[in-house]
Write a structure and sequence with these properties.
CATH topology of chain A: Rossmann fold
CATH class of chain B: Mainly Alpha
CATH architecture of chain B: Orthogonal Bundle
CATH superfamily of chain A: P-loop containing nucleotide triphosphate hydrolases
Strand content of chain A: 15-25%
Radius of gyration of chain B: 23 Å
CATH topology of chain B: MetI-like fold
Largest sheet of chain B: none
Number of strands of chain A: 9
Oligomer: heterodimer
Helix content of chain A: 25-40%
Organism (chain B): Rhodoplanes tepidamans
Bound molecules: adenosine-5'-triphosphate, magnesium ion
Subcellular location (chain B): Cell membrane
CATH superfamily of chain B: MetI-like
Largest sheet of chain A: 6 strands, mixed
Family (chain B): Belongs to the binding-protein-dependent transport system permease family.
Protein name (chain B): ABC transporter permease
Strand content of chain B: under 5%
Order of helices and strands of chain B: HHHHHHHHHH
Helix content of chain B: over 70%
Number of strands of chain B: 0
Structural class of chain A: alpha/beta
Domain ABC transmembrane type-1 (chain B): 61-245
Chain lengths: 280, 265
């Protein structure tokens, strides 16, 4: 039995319809060749529907960050294009079409207190102080940092700094969250906790999330759909729908079905690195 | 507390002890070898001269301080403006930075006579010389600071559609602050050095005689105790300037910048 056959377990039904909701993001044959000549991505087709939690899972260098940055309009595709809520990027930012990017590092201003850091996007947009402060309070409550609003970033742990970064993203009341390995630098216990909190937030506030990760377990725990990518050249290998109702909690983490999904993704990733090597 | 290197009291006490020790050894050596006072005066004699000649020395100190502070002020204002202009565009920096370096590498002693000829008013001439000396660290440090912005934060600002002014005020200036204060520290010392060196070259006496002039005169007249007393005042001024700058940057940055942090134990 080949590896390719091995992964065709019942859970793997790429034909399964994606969760309802109009498309938030459409990647239409977009590829990327950097000026250095590196081909980071072959043409990608991917649709993220409103209300989905999609993770991009793949080995280092497969172009996950590149794809996410294209979705954030931080870099332009070499050819092909993207659509945001069915239109071009010019309309992003309107009501119901707000997008934020959460970096791998907390990326906080060290000279500014937690409140100032979280309020930054509102200050830049000219939101009045009083209204801004009320929204900051709500965002800080969402990440459980109400008591730390007047601390400096250096006085917080790595996990707390990451929460500040997420609060800063939430304060703009976004519809779409783009997260590039946001918890990659944290220990497992902290990471699990933040994953749970993020998931609850996504569920309660009906957000759409595109989440980059190296971790199979994180992707199975969080996603409605995992997009498995392979390197050299960067491409989408398979999309796997994680068919498990929400809200999810630790019981899901230790369930049989969770383990089955994790094993299948493990096999797929092994295939990804084999087929990647074949291209070299 | 034992011998904790972070102890504040020790940080003051130890240098003071060293100072007293040096004075005692100095006095002992002068007394023991009967060194004549026109070579090395004893610290007590220097102190006596300081008191006796106080009105003369104090007037000169004020002149030197005036030149130093005016030059320092001008250097900060002009240097910051130049740095902001340079930071606005790579092309402006490319075109003018070599000339800023020229300013830095030309010894002030070499250009002072020229400036003294061009600028008739003696105090103004000294201020110009000292400003030239003090200018460069402000320019180079401020530029470095304005450019050393965390790229992630810059992305964040751009994604939030920040205007150039917002980017400057909320990101570049705070990022530059620690570098700027580093520049202030160096520049304040250089302003004093510039003021003294320029006065040596100018050699103006009368009402505008600064400490350098007193040193020159004392040297001619072999009044070594007076020379030492003037020297002592210059050193004291330098130390005071340094301490003021350190305190200033602590006040401005103490809350957040890592270079100002004392590790908590
Ligand atoms: N700005 C750039 N200029 C040139 N090449 C780049 C640039 N950014 C990324 N690359 C290249 O593109 C490829 C994909 O990079 P990317 O950062 O998207 O990978 P990734 O999947 O996010 O990897 P990781 O998991 O390690 O973060 C890599 O080979 C990388 O070297
Ligand atoms: Mg990456």
């Amino acid at each position: 039995m080949t590896i390719a056959q091995a992964v065709r377990t019942p859970e793997f039904d790429a034909q399964e319809p994606a969760p309802a909701g109009p498309p938030a993001i459409e990647v239409l044959g977009a590829d990327k060749v950097f000026s250095t000549g590196v081909r980071a991505l072959t043409p990608i087709d991917l649709t993220v529907n409103q209300g989905e939690f999609v993770t991009l899972l793949g080995p280092s260098g497969c172009g996950k960050s590149t794809l996410l940055k294209m979705v954030a309009n931080l870099i332009e595709p070499t050819s092909g294009g993207l659509m945001w809520w069915g239109r071009d990027y010019g309309h992003v930012g309107e009501e119901g079409k707000k997008l934020v990017f959460v970096f791998q590092d907390p990326t906080l201003m060290p000279w500014s207190r937690v409140r100032g850091n979280v309020r930054l996007p509102l200050d830049l947009a000219g939101v009045p102080k009083a209204e801004g402060n009320a929204r900051v309070d709500r965002a800080l409550a969402m990440v459980g940092l109400e008591k730390f609003d007047s601390s400096y970033p250096r006085q917080l742990s790595g996990g707390m700094q990451m929460r500040v970064s997420i609060a800063r993203a939430l304060v703009t009341e976004p519809n779409l969250l783009l997260m590039d390995e946001p918890f990659g630098a944290l220990d497992e216990i902290t990471r699990n906790k933040l994953d749970q909190d993020l998931l609850d937030l996504w569920f309660e506030r009906k957000l759409t999330v595109v989440f980059v990760t190296h971790s199979i377990y994180e992707s199975v725990f969080l996603s409605t759909r995992v997009v498995v990518m392979a390197a050299r050249p960067g491409r989408v290998l398979r999309e796997v729908v994680i068919d498990e109702p929400y809200p999810r909690d630790d019981a899901w983490r230790v369930s049989q079905r969770f383990a089955a999904y994790a094993r299948d993704l493990q096999v797929l990733l092994a295939e990804a690195s084999v087929s990647g090597a074949a291209h070299e | 507390m034992a011998l904790d290197p972070n102890n504040r009291t020790l940080a003051v006490l130890l240098p003071v002890l060293v100072g007293i020790l040096v004075l005692v050894v100095w006095h002992g050596a002068v007394w023991y070898w009967q060194v004549p006072k026109y070579l090395v005066p004893s610290p007590i004699l220097v102190a006596e001269t300081l008191v006796d000649q106080w009105s003369l020395l104090f007037a000169s100190l004020l002149v030197t301080l005036k030149v130093t502070f005016m030059a320092f002020f001008l250097a900060v204002v002009i240097g910051t403006l130049i740095a902001f202009a340079f930071a606005q565009s790579k092309f402006i920096e490319m075109s003018f930075f070599p000339y800023a370096v020229l300013l830095q590498v030309t010894p002030v002693v070499a250009i002072a006579p020229l400036i003294i000829i061009w600028v008739k008013e003696p105090t103004a001439a000294l201020v110009v010389c000292a400003t030239i000396v003090a200018l460069f660290p402000i320019i180079s440090n401020t530029i470095l600071g304005l450019r050393s912005v965390n790229p992630g934060l810059l992305n964040l600002f751009r994604m939030n559609r920040a205007t150039r002014l917002q980017e400057l005020v909320r990101l570049r200036i705070p990022s530059a602050a620690p570098y700027f204060f580093g520049g202030l520290r160096i520049s304040s010392g250089l302003a004093l050095i510039g003021a003294v060196v320029a006065e040596f070259v100018a050699g103006t006496g009368g009402t505008s005689a600064g400490l350098a002039y007193q040193i020159l005169q004392a040297g001619f007249q072999l009044d070594i105790p007076l020379l030492f007393a003037a020297l002592f005042l210059i050193t004291l001024t330098g130390v005071a300037l340094f301490l003021i700058m350190v305190t200033l940057s602590k006040l401005a940055l103490g809350d957040w910048h890592e270079s100002e942090l004392v590790p908590e134990t």
